[in-house]
Amino acid sequence: MTGGSRGIGRAIAERFAAAGHKVAATSRSGEAPTGVLGVECDITDPGQVEAAFTQIEAAHGPVEILVANAGITKDTLVLRMSDEDWQSVIDTNLTGSFRVAKRAVRPMIRQRFGRIIFISSVVGLLGSPGQVNYAASKAGLLGLARSLAREIGSRGVTANVVAPGYIETDMTAVLDDDLVQGYKKQIPVGRLGDVSDVTAAVEFLASDQAGYITGAQIPVDGGLGMGH
């Protein structure tokens, strides 16, 4: 998986490792949870992506489940957003996800089994002021997944999207309490999500039981994005 050093990505890596999978997690730092192969990789660099896959395949064999989670934000209102603010977010969140999926697909087709899961966001379809770059990159993952699903579904490979809402992580822990309470009022279930809510959805989509689900976006947002 990509972006496995912290937050939701780290939790996904830990859950898969606990379930007995051989797990490798890429990040720019190369850090990973105990029991997970940490691989240093900047997914905006094609050479580093190829090197990471080569290292992972040497250690664990062909990748059967890909979780594309790596992402960044560079939030600001559109009138202040620079071309670099836009491009760097698109390059990491969307193009980086395309790049790792493309590299993973051929071995999956050869094995006639594969699970590709993109981690999007409720923001991708709901929208968010100050996040036109992030929202566009996350919305793009759905088109990517659905097109992949049509290309490779007959080969036993699925492609799906998980779209978390507001999840309790280190990032949300530093938010002002009034802001958090405001978020909760918008969420029908009345609470922020737990990382386990997201990891459970990812684990299911990666399982044999989800073999007939492809091209889907699974919202894990407490109902925040209903209808979008």
Automatic annotation (TrEMBL):
Coiled-coil annotated residue ranges, if any: none
CDD domains, per database record: BKR_SDR_c
Catalyses which reaction(s): a (3R)-hydroxyacyl-[ACP] + NADP(+) = a 3-oxoacyl-[ACP] + NADPH + H(+)
Span of domain Ketoreductase: 2-170
Keywords carried by this UniProt record: Fatty acid biosynthesis, Fatty acid metabolism, Lipid biosynthesis, Lipid metabolism, NADP, Oxidoreductase
Residues binding NADP(+), per UniProt: G3, G4, S5, R6, N69, Y134, A135, A136, S137, K138, I167
EC assignment: 1.1.1.100
InterPro entries: 3oxo_ACP_reduc (IPR011284), KR_dom (IPR057326), NAD(P)-bd_dom_sf (IPR036291), Sc_DH/Rdtase_CS (IPR020904), SDR_fam (IPR002347)
EC category: oxidoreductase
Oligomeric form and interacting partners: Homotetramer.
Listed NCBIfam families: 3oxo_ACP_reduc, PRK12826.1-2
Record function comment: Catalyzes the NADPH-dependent reduction of beta-ketoacyl-ACP substrates to beta-hydroxyacyl-ACP products, the first reductive step in the elongation cycle of fatty acid biosynthesis.
Protein name: 3-oxoacyl-[acyl-carrier-protein] reductase
Organism ancestry: Bacteria, Bacillati, Actinomycetota, Actinomycetes, Propionibacteriales
